[in-house]
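Table S2 (text version). Query chain:
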Amino acid sequence: MPIEIRCQCGKKLRVPDKLADRMVKCPGCNAQIQVPSLALPDDDDDADDVPQLPITFPSKSAFGSPPQFSAPRGNHQPAQDDQRYSLREFVEETGQQDHGQGFFELESPYMLEVNLNGMVWTKMGSMIAYVGNIRFVREGILEKGLGKLLKKAMTGEGTKLTKAEGQGRLYLADSGKRISILNLQNESIYVNGNDLLALEETIEWDIKMMYSIAGMMAGGLFNVKLTGTGMIAITSHFQPMTLRVTPDQPVTTDPNATIAWSGNLMPEFKKDISLKTFFGRGSGESIQMHFRGNGFVVVQPYEEVYFQAK
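Corresponding structure-token output:
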């Protein structure tokens, strides 16, 4: 809106309102003229004519989430209805769940639930809890025959089995190791004696001593051969890996990291003289298991020291 002003020479001028409060030159007499300020509208008369812009906050911050305003520091008192970290929440989140998976059921990757109605073989010391009427009986001296008794005495075998009988839910674990359930269908598998957690009554088991390396070991290496139809549970440190064995692709493993292999394979053992042997590192890697044929071998990303080379 133009502003009208009059020079002292009598000339009337119209200047843009953007020149308010500035000096302009009169085109008639070249005199400097002060342009007056714009008059502010009366609050009472024109207040309704001025649009009121709402004050809003951005719905999202520059990082894509709503802006957060920090509360004053101090002794903040939680709301009375705050149920976080309550006992009720803890019990609900960690409560036992029935997954309906049958005789063997993984309650978690590290805990086995046995829905028992009869008998099951378990590793001694693996029971952590049970619900129902269950009793435990240590393996009888001659229950599996005199041959197995003699082999256990010769090998110094450390895995002892306990027979659990009755009805209820039995919970097993082994030092927080990961548990894998296998359903054998008239099949066989070798399992390291320390990694066998449980097996059904229908599974036949036998201790297999690696006689060819008995003179190379401090303590010896033993495995359990499991044969038949039924469920078994084995353990491993962390996630196991299975390697395929074929005639044109043999597999070599560290015995301390080997937990199982297919029942048709018989590994060969050999010494590996390397620099670490000369520097005094006598680990199991100086003895290797060599698998040939058709089958598989299961290893874990952890070395349990079952034996050391002499």
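Notes on Table S2: The chain has a mean pLDDT of 77. The radius of gyration is 42 Å.
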